[in-house]
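Just wondering, does anyone understand these tokens?
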Amino acid sequence: MTSTKKQGLFTGENGVNYLFPFILVTSLFALWGFANDITNPMVAAFKNILLITNFESSLVQFAFYGGYCFMAIPAAIFINKCGYKKGILAGLALYAAGCLLFIPAGNAMAFWAFLIAYFVMTCGLAFLETTSNPYILSMGSEDTATRRLNFAQAFNPIGSLTGMLIAKELILAKLNVATETERAALQVNDPDAFMRIQESDLAVVSGPYLVLGVVVLIFFLLFFFAKLPNNTSTDKGSLHIGDSFKRLLGNKKYLWAVVAQAFYVGVQIMVWTFIIQYAGAELGMSKAAAQGYNMIAMGIFVSSRFVCTYLLKYIKPSLLLLILASGGIVCTLGTIFIHGMLGLYSLVAISACMSLMFPTIYGIALKGLGNDAKLGSAGLILAIGGGCLMPPLQGLLIDKAVWFEALSSVRISFVLPLICFVVIACFGRWSGKR
């Protein structure tokens, strides 16, 4: 019985053992998790450092997730022509380049330069995710593919937690304690002092990204010398883009999944980005203290992912997705309508409901696609663009939604995550019927 499970998880039909490449590729999940969650708190940091609006500061997320939109399809074409290993190497090279661009951006003290750095970085992440997800799915039996991807994705939050900790202790906690009001007064009364504070704070922001760039270059060398075995899903040139694209457009389950994935990524980024604003506006917490609740949310996310991965042995993925989305709706309603700490606890609890959504939607979408999974994977990575559109919309709501006296604009803004969970619940129900 044990050998059957082992074969199903890590041994292909051709007898190739994928355990080592599985471990190696799974390490990338933590690496891009780190990038995602060291970046989320930077929305609040740039708002304070540069004295910009919530909408303007959330352009960090627009640039960050815009890289996924721009590069997902080109990455799939590149991988088809050059193979998965070169796709991983291209992704790591772009990732490292984006991190290293933080140094000239900090020296220029220009917000647009930081946005370019984020964009380049996530062009690399698009390569890595377009490569890694279908590769993990192919490392064994198709019947256990969703479980295998969920297991690999469970290591993504480990990188996320590390990124959150670095953001809290080495960035947010080390920024100048001057409030936005005090900085605005300094900008008028003592511009030189204001510039010195800005220069110091931007150096604090840039430092960890420089170290991250060096770490990513080490991973580049590791993958450069590693031997990654090929399989049916990674044969070069086996994908006919036009035919595959037509088949995917005619696949309702796949198209629904792309929509659901876009809304999922949107809700994830909104929840984790605006915990800091919620805790600050509703409870008067400092950014570093609020980031602590972000870390608690991620801890819950990690724990829930392992639990839900186990539950997939007994519950259909579509049904579990529906249950989790329904829980997300309840928790988001609590975030909007419950005052004080209970409202914050409701916001933190949303992470338990999000834990398994990305890999579950991914697995449902790609199951049975065969070699179309190459382009199909790129479409699902393209759907990460939901993370570039929705946070700026929520930031705009926070800036402008002052028309409802009973609720603050921050709480009203969580109507957007609520809508996202409704869409995901509808997909879970529909795919279950299919």
In short: The longest helix spans residues 191-225. The chain has 22 helices and no strands.
